[in-house]
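Supplementary Note 2. Why include the ligand at all?

Several targets in our set were suspected to adopt different conformations when bound, so apo predictions alone were not considered sufficient. For every target with a known small-molecule partner we therefore ran a joint prediction. The input for beta-D-fucopyranose is given below.
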Amino acid sequence: MSLVIPGPGARIPAPGTPVPFAPTAPLTTPTPNSAGRVAFPDGFLWGTATAAFQVEGAGAEGGRQDSIWDTFCRVPGAVHAGDDGMVACDHYHRYREDVALMKRLDLGSYRFSTSWARIMPDGKTVNREGLDFYSRLVDELLGADLLPWLTLYHWDLPQALEELGGWPSRDTAYRFAEYAVAMHEALGDRVGVWTTLNEPWCSAFLGYTSGAHAPGKKSPELGLAAAHHLMLGHGLATSALRELDPAATLGITLNFTVSDPVDPTDPADVDVARRDDGMFNRIFLDPILRGAYPADILDDVAHLGFAEHVREGDLQIISTPIDVLGVNYYNGGAVSARPQHPGGADPDGTAGPDGAREQADDAPVWEVRSPNPVPDGIHHHSRGLPTTDMGWEVQPEGLTRLLLRLQEDYTGPRGIQLFVTENGAAYPDVVQADGSVDDQDRLAFVDAHLRAVKDAIDGGADVRGYFAWSLLDNFEWALGYSKRFGLVHTDYETQERTVKASGRWYATVAAANAVPARPGAEE
Ligand code: FCB
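The joint prediction is reproduced in token form.
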């Protein structure tokens, strides 16, 4: 491989002293990176990301059995138009074509996830055929000089384990570590980068508190129990992998918000932003990187039994040193103690990055609640920024602030590298008669966020790579196939892939290791 990611950085013990929340003001543009050509540091890694359930299909092939998402897709009204993952992008059969496509796009790495339900369909017995698929995929990537960036868990728990209690059950954390070891035994000779979990916030709080995601449970207590056991699973897997493979690059991917108080001079708004930040960001950052849950959040959830799940020694396991922190960023939010329109619903609800569900009028209604276990009095306000097809505000400067904060408060002192492991946008693409998609909106979104990443690098953040979400249009969870995030268009009838304008542009960025000047701007 031509790409080498340096091994573990400097290690310092986690001090266990949480960093208090401090609001920052939105950055004003333009910055020096706003318009001209922006070159990235040598060796910057350019990739795209997908997830097993969203692209693979082959739902009942190769010994695979149901994951919680297969089950959830069968719940009337839970998923847009009753869509499911049985075929998806048929990546299971078309992975060679997809790897060749990435190669043509000049990419350096593919971030994919492995399906636990394919590897251990009953939650405990290894299925050789499942391993073989990923072995073939990894060989194909290496043959194309693409770095395999493997994520062990992107939300698709084997249904068999959900039936034993799922993530709210402590045992699941141990099963996860066993699965990590089985994967490493099969692929450790060829895969050097291992991510334990993708976005535990979504697994815990969309899955077990809001009910918007599989398994569709709606309980603050279950969400919190799941959150701790996801953390424990991360720690157990990280320490097992570290022991097996000291040279491996290990990490986790978290999704972040940037919580801005609507009125930074109003202590009530600042406190709401603190709570929002705590339940979204710090509840995962602090145990992993500082060896302690944030004291303010422990207080906020004390009545929900969270602390009872945290046993002696757990935090030491959870804070096993990592090498990289994956950062998924779509948008931040402005929050207040007061509703924006008194008496009315908040403009973007309280659901965070789940988007509004559009269903046919006669479709059964699947009610969801807030993913925040303690949502009372937190009101999200619209800032009038442009929004994507998910209804998410387009806020690139939030990514700069996020990366700088992570660097300063969490990763920098520990020598941990940052990678943006997801960023991208859904827009209602228009397919021309010749099959082309001129998605200037998505192109502008990625352009703006890459400039924001460079602003953070210039400010001292150790960001080593960027993965666009997503390579292909795919199954967007509860929103089914109704939202398109791909740099490549997927025709779900024919499975034909067509590179969009954004994908062609991204290929030039990867090839040049630079974002070209915006039209009309000076070089
Ligand atoms: C993230 C998920 C990813 C995709 C994007 C749009 O939260 O990790 O699978 O759904 O959102």
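Residues 51, 54, 198-199, 202, 255, 328, 353, 422, 469, 476-477, 485 surround beta-D-fucopyranose (CB under 6 Å). The first helix runs from residue 52 to 55. Comparable summaries for the other entries are listed in the accompanying table.
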